[in-house]
C-alpha cells in the first residue's frame, strides 16, 4: 500500500541519516584517536632520544617569556620560534585582548611577573585575524560582539584614515594598532604599575604581529615616549633600555 511504501521510505531515510551521522562521528573519533597516537609516538621517541627529558620537564618551570596572543589555531608558537616546552607562559584569547577587568588575564600576568619572574612580555597579533574582521564589519550581538567592541572603537576612531587603504592593508594596519593598544592597557594594570612606579625592574615589553603568509614575526615600535609625555608612564621608564631592532640580526 501507499502507506507501507511511505513508511519503508521514511525508515530508509532515517537509517541513511543515522549512517551519515555515525560516519561523521567516526571521522571525528578517528581524528581524536590519531591525536592520542601522535602523542604516544612523540613521547616514546623523545624519551628514547633524551631519557631525562620528561624528568627535567616535570620538575619546575622557569619561562623567560609571557606570551599574550590570539587564540587562532594557525599560530603554533613553538614551531614559529623553534623553541620547546618551558619557554613560554601563555595567555590567549580572540584577537589578543588585554582588559584591566579580565581576571583570567590579570591572574596570569601576576603569576608570570611575580612568581615566575618572566623577563619579557610579548603581546602578539597576526594578520588575517578573524577578530579584527569581526570588529570592522560589526557583530550584532552576543559575547563575541562585546569582546571585539574595543577593537571596533579603535577602528571607528581612525576610520577616515584607515579606509583610504586597500582592505587587506587596512585590516593589517588595524591588527598592528590593536597590539599597540593592548600594550597600553597592559602598562596600566596594577601589576605593571607597581613594578614601574615603585622603581622595581619590570619585564621588557614587546609588540609583534605574525604574518601567516610568510611565517615571519614583525616587531612593532611602541610609543612609550608619547605615553611618558602624557604621564601614563614615569619619566624614568625606558623598557630596560630596549629599542626595537637594536638586537635583531638579519
Automatic annotation (TrEMBL):
PROSITE patterns, sorted: PROK_CO2_ANHYDRASE_2 (PS00705)
Q: Which GO terms describe its biological process?
A: carbon utilization
Annotated Zn(2+) binding lies at 70, 72, 126, 129
> What is the catalytic activity of this protein?
hydrogencarbonate + H(+) = CO2 + H2O
> Which keywords are on file for this protein?
Lyase, Metal-binding, Zinc
Q: Any idea of its EC number?
A: 4.2.1.1
MF-aspect GO terms = carbonate dehydratase activity; zinc ion binding
Source domain of life is Eukaryota
* Reported cofactor(s): Zn(2+)
Q: How is the cofactor bound?
A: Binds 1 zinc ion per subunit.
What does the UniProt record say this protein does? Reversible hydration of carbon dioxide.
Family per record: Belongs to the beta-class carbonic anhydrase family.
Q: State the name under which the record lists this protein.
A: Carbonic anhydrase
**Originating organism:** Vannella robusta
